[in-house]
Amino acid sequence: MVSAPVGPLPSPGGRGPGCGPGPRPLTPALAALPQPLLEWETVILPLVDGGGEATRDPRVGQSEAALKFKGGCRGALTAGTQQADPGAPGGFRGDGDRRPPGRGVRFVGVNASDINYSAGRYDPSVKTPFDVGFEGVGEVVALGLSASARHTVGQTVAYMSPGSFAEYTVVPASIATPVPSATPEYLTLLVSGTTAYICLKELGGLKEGKKVLVTAAAGGTGQFAVQLAKKAGCHVIGTCSSEEKSAFLKSVGCDRPINYNTEHVGTVLKREYPGGVDVVYESVGGAMFDLAIDALATKGRLIVIGFISGYQTPTGLSPVNAGTLPAKLLRKSASIQGFFLNHYLSEYRASMDHLVKMCTSGDLVCQVDLGDLSTEGRFTGLESVFRAVDYMYMGKNTGKIVVELPHPVNSKL
User: Fold this and answer.
1) Number of Cβ atoms within 10 Å of the Cβ of 77
2) pLDDT in tens, 296-353
């Protein structure tokens, strides 16, 4: 679904920070669409605090269902600016004042690649301002006409959609996964969990007895790579940065945690695994990538799912010893392959459903870090996303970093 809403929704008692009158300009992504897609029908949405206009894609409720989610005040975190979310497409069936009990808390996830997306590296043609964030968990407050076949108002769903750093958002019903409750554990599965699951399933070639090295193993996606490899009967090695993280890795089945601040990763691998490792799940890049290449066994494979050590540089890359790489791969009949989740979306729905079942049954640990141990405390509200990103790049997190968005009692949409 494509929507280009105009006319800000007022917050209870007045407009929120950044809200302003008048229409909101089309984003660059919308402006680039073929003109027939930009023919909108204007409707009036009933609002508690007065009227507001919004535009609606005439196809909503026909060819593609849409959901509107709620987790707090009307707001959005936008690359280049912070502004209020101007609302949602019309044609929705909302719940008015009949707010189900228990609704209120919503969470958004922080990913290492958020910094790449906001820097324009995923799509250099997109200029600021544009919405950022990839994932969230929320409760449905309104439905497109055909979305009611699968979803209901008040239902909790998890969703992966660009622009998710927002307190209200609109996503196609087809990408919303029902989950048992609005808890952050389910959010960990959307990007981090599915990346590990699909990557290892499609590219890992995991078999019982294989040796698997996971870098940044105590992070958002590393925790799942460790557990899934262990469930496949593999011997799992995981790198991390503290004794606390080592203890966590042991608790989820990691056979050999390596704290690289107290042990040299290359030395440990050469001494304890002289035959090399069969699979590397690599997300750090730079020097860690070089060490992992050297540690590959004959016919070993290294899967690149990221290179966080370089994301804060001007190019987004960290240097590697590429000059000798062809010779190293040839000598071992080894291979390197990249994995980008967007190229495996045909596997996404089934994988997400499977992971939700594993999480619900307790068969999968979904470690969440809400920043309680950070200097300024828990990550609460969109304004704390900046702190959460810094926290991640300082290597402080254990598990997936999640930001909580509080639900104002007086909000009625």
Assistant:
1) 24
2) 999 999 999 999 999 988 888 889 999 999 999 999 999 999 999 999 999 999 999 9
Residue 68 CB neighbours (<10 A): 24
- 413 near 382, Cβ under 8 Å? no
What percentage of the chain has pLDDT greater than the value 90?
Answer: 59
Instruction: Yes or no: say if 290 and 318 are a contact pair by the CB < 8 Å rule.
Output: no
At 278, list the tokens.
């069969």
Q: How many CA atoms lie within 13 A of 175 on its CB side?
A: 23
Q: Omega of the bond prior to 17 within 30 degrees of 0, cis?
A: no
Q: Are strands 93-94 and 235-240 parallel, antiparallel or unpaired?
A: unpaired
Residue with the two structure tokens 């019982």: 208
Task: Give whole-number Cα distances, 24 to 68, 104, 149, 202, 389, in Å.
Answer: 19, 28, 32, 42, 28
Q: Which domains does the chain have, with CATH numbers?
A: 191-361 (3.40.50.720)
Cβ contacts of 367 within 8 Å, gap of 6 or more:
188, 223, 248, 252, 398, 399, 400
**How many angstroms separate the CA atoms of 110 and 114, rounded?**
7
18: left (phi over 0), alpha (psi -120 to 50) or beta: left
Angle between helices 325-332 and 286-294 (to 10 degrees): 30
Q: Please, what is the average pLDDT of the chain?
A: 78
As a whole number of angstroms, the distance between CA 12 and CA 57 comes to 27
